Give the backbone structure.
Amino acid sequence: MKKLLGLVSGVVVLVLACSKDSYNSGNNNPPPVDCSTISATFAANVSPLISTNCAKSGCHANGSTNGPGALTSYALISAAKVQIRAAVASGNMPKDKTFSATEKATITCWIDAGALNN
């Protein structure tokens, strides 16, 4: 019985340690981002990140019904900015990789600055 309990405990610890959750604040709010040194623009910074990591087959390409749908243009990305910010800041997106702190800050700071088409 002790071996079984130890095995189950070990599996639980392993699963929790390998989860995609990138913060452990004890609540659902991601840590704040310091945008004072980030000057992200849509064309130069945000669009390439989303095009490469999000707007692809099986995720948010044309015709997608996943989450906010397709993220293939400024209009679609801007319309989904609240969902994008929450998913990126929490580390839930993208599903197949983890954004670096700089990539997360680029997207969240661009949205926080008004999500301009610049």
In short: Confidence is low (pLDDT under 50) at residues 4-26. The two ends are 62 Å apart (CA to CA). Helices lie at 2-17, 42-53, 74-79, 81-90, 101-112.
